[in-house]
Amino acid sequence: MYLISLLNGFVVAVFGMILSASFCDICWNRKKQFVMLGSMAGLLMVQGIIVYFMETEMVRFLYPVITHLPLILILLVLTKKRLWSVVSVFTAYLCCQVRRWLALFITAILSGDAMIQEMSELIITIPLLLLLLKYISPAVRSISYSNTWVQSQFCLIPAVYYIFDYATYIYTDLMAKGTPVVAEFMSFVCSTAYLVFVLRTSEEKWMRSQLEQAQDSLNLQISQAVREIGAMRESQQKTKEYRHDLRHHMQYLVACIENNCLEHAKEYIQGICSEIEASKVITFCENEAANLIFSAFAERAKGKGVLLKVKAQIPKQIHISESDLCVLLSNALENALHACCKIKEDMETSIEVSAFEKNKKLFLQIVNSCDSDVSFVQGIPVTNEPDHGIGVRSICALVDRYNGIYTFEIEEGRFILRVSI
């Protein structure tokens, strides 16, 4: 029994050292491998000397000083990371408790004694170590790249358990006495850690949602810019074509005048003027960004058979950034156009835009045809359609950032968005 206990102590020491090293992101070379193996041999030798001259219980009592502290220093030399060297050792110590608990579980099933427990610990050591090295070690190593705050959070439970185990099991017999405060302490720690984890996860989810909204807004701006560039390129190409054909037009008009065909010449001039008028960029307001967006959506609405009316008085310079104005107008008009396209083809649809600035405040109202079946949650329209609803969230987030006001409502089959920003 004594020899098995000694062997088990040797095995668990090797188990913990290997795990501690595997949790560190070390670029192993021959020199570092030699340092690690030599250090492990030296630490085991120290333990053996203490067992030989004193007793086994003294090794457990001195373990933090003769094993854990030197191991932290060794890993510090190999990794150059002070905090993570401590984290890896504490985490490995926590994993050793998995080995002990599994052995206790097997012993309870077999109704065995201390000998069965020692044998169970020896038997499950290698399989458990291989599983931890394959599945757990890579995940733990990935956390070593995180900032100090994340590493400290990860270290919290292993560190608390390390102190708790030595304070109540090794150095005192508080655990054996079953004091309620001691018995419930780790449950309290796990519960608190869980609540902190939930809070942290919720915060990260919110931040991720904000980043996704920002990314969606940027993608919308990029797609809008691409459409605007395409429209401007098409207009420029038509201008080149008219300039190229101008000489031919003049020659034809001269021929009409020489042959006294004034009516033909007049009709021809009117036709050319109509083509030029149709190809020019309509000016909706002085603001260039808003004007481009209105022009682009006017073409899209016309192509889908939707009447777009714009009454805008937005000056060239306003307090809202150009990118935010693009996000606001593009999302609002995109949603309005989408709502109109969902209505039956035999029904007339329209979008009416009113916008003006007064006292450094931008007022925007967009009224569009829509289905009456629109769901609202706390005054904000929601939808179950995939990849939809992002525009509304982007509008709300943008208006909130400027401490503005927004309202969504339906009146007589017309959806109304009002924004004051």
How would you characterize the overall build of this protein?
The chain is an alpha+beta fold and 421 residues long. The protein is built from twelve helices and seven strands. The strands form two sheets. A five-stranded mixed β-sheet has the order 1-2-3-7-6, with helices on one face. Strands 4-5 form a two-stranded antiparallel sheet.
Task: Summarize the topology.
Elements: H1 2-22, H2 30-53, H3 56-79, H4 82-110, H5 114-143, H6 148-170, H7 174-177, H8 180-258, H9 262-279, H10 288-303, E1 307-313, H11 322-341, E2 350-358, E3 361-369, E4 375-377, E5 380-382, H12 390-401, E6 405-411, E7 414-420
Parallel strand pairs: 1-2
Antiparallel strand pairs: 2-3, 3-7, 4-5, 6-7
What oligomerization state is this entry in?
single chain
Reported for the largest beta sheet, the result is:
5 strands, mixed
Topology as H/E string? HHHHHHHHHHEHEEEEHEE
Dominant shape: elongated
Helix percent band: over 70%
Class by SSE composition: alpha+beta
Query: Tally of extended strands?
Result: 7
> If you average the pLDDT, what whole number results?
85
The count of helical stretches stands at 12
Q: How far is the N terminus from the C terminus?
A: 80 Å
Low-pLDDT parts are none
**Strand sequence of the main sheet, in spatial order?**
1-2-3-7-6
Give the count of structural domains: 3
Beta-sheet strand percentage?
5-15%
Compute the CA-based radius of gyration.
Answer: 38 Å
